Structures are given as C-alpha cells and as structure tokens.
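W.,

You were right to be curious about this one. When I first looked at the sequence I had no strong expectations either way, so I just let the prediction run and decided to look at it fresh. Below is the sequence, 225 residues in total, followed by the output.
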Amino acid sequence: MNLWGPLGKLHKSGSGFYLKLAQRFSGNAVVSQTWAAMAQDLDDQAAELQALSPAFWRHLERSEAGWREAVAAVEAAADFRTFEPADWSLHRCLERTLELEEQSSLRVYAPLIYHLRGQTGRALDFYVTVHAHLTRLAGLIQPFAGDPRLTRRCLELLERFEKEAQIPKAPLKTSPRDRARRGTLQRTRAVHAAEACPKRPAGRSHQRTEPRVGKIKLVRRRARH
C-alpha cells in the first residue's frame, strides 16, 4: 500500500472543503480569508508529508488497517462528495469544520507526529504546522460562533491534540501478516538469547562451602612489668 496516496487525496479534498467555505462567506473578509488560509495550511501539510523519505512510508504500512480506518473516518465526517454549504448558516459551517478537524487531527495527524518522532527529525515542524492550523480555527470560532459549547469543544480539541501528539490514545491496528512476522522475530530473539547464555556444568553445587581451616584462637599474654 502506498499510504501517501490516500493521505494526499485527503489533504486535497480538505483544501477544497475550506475553499468552498471561503467562497460561501466572501462578503465577510475576516471569515473568508481565514478559511482560505486554512485551505493553504492543508496544502502546506501535504507538501511536508510528500517530502518524507520512502522508508518512513514503508514503516507506516505496518499499520495499514489502522490508517485506512482513520482516513475513512475523516472522509465520513467531512462528507466531501455531498458537501455544499451554499445555504448553510455560519454556525453550521463552523460546526462542520470542527467535526472535520476533530477526526483528522486526533485520528490522523497526532499518530503521524508520534511516528515522525521515532523515524525522522521532522516531527516538530509538522506539529507546529498542524497546531497553527487548529489555532487559526479557534480564532475563528471564538468570536463568530456565538456558542460557548462550540468554543469549548474547539479548545478541548487543541488540548487533546497536544497530548495525543506525544502519546496516541490507542495504537493503530496492525495487519495479521505483520503480527505473525513480529511474533516470529520475538521467538527467534529468545532462542538466540538462550543459546548465547553459557551453560553451567550439571551436578555441581552452587551452595557456599565452609572454609576448611578452623578458627584460630589468640591467646592473650599478660604484660611483664
């Protein structure tokens, strides 16, 4: 599986999602420009990921099932195929945006950053890019949503992303073939470790033996005057 394929498609669809929102509210310069900037954020994220080495993508293929499930969840939340915000209110658009970012940030980007920490030196760069994107969303929701619950959800998303980028809530699913390969590798290592340990001769006691020399009594002599 070439994992960059579905991830690249996801970024392209997400960028189109935000451009549609920018066009929907073209009469409001602040809102429209913010969503246009968020579309550019996704293009920048895609460029960063595409520049990663093939070895990194091969490493991710070990969790192919989990990545497929995560990408499908984001696509379902965004519903890119039928997404048409022409008649939507600003509140509804902000709500849909938050639903998309909750799925993509926690199920895709946070695990990606976790794996980047272990495989490359690009984790911090990508973390900053995604975090800036979510901060931009918070700066849009807080003054324009008019809904304390939506604002709280957005702030909680930022906090969860910061935590889960360090340690994902649950590991991505691995394929049965990879689990079998890992089990074989662990058994092989155990056998090699056992063979490397020196064997002790049979029949020898490892108990501490008593010294053969008896105790020496010291006779105290009386001093002469």
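Here's what jumped out at me. The mean pLDDT is 79. And, maybe more interesting for your project: The chain has eight helices and no strands.

Coffee later to discuss?

I.
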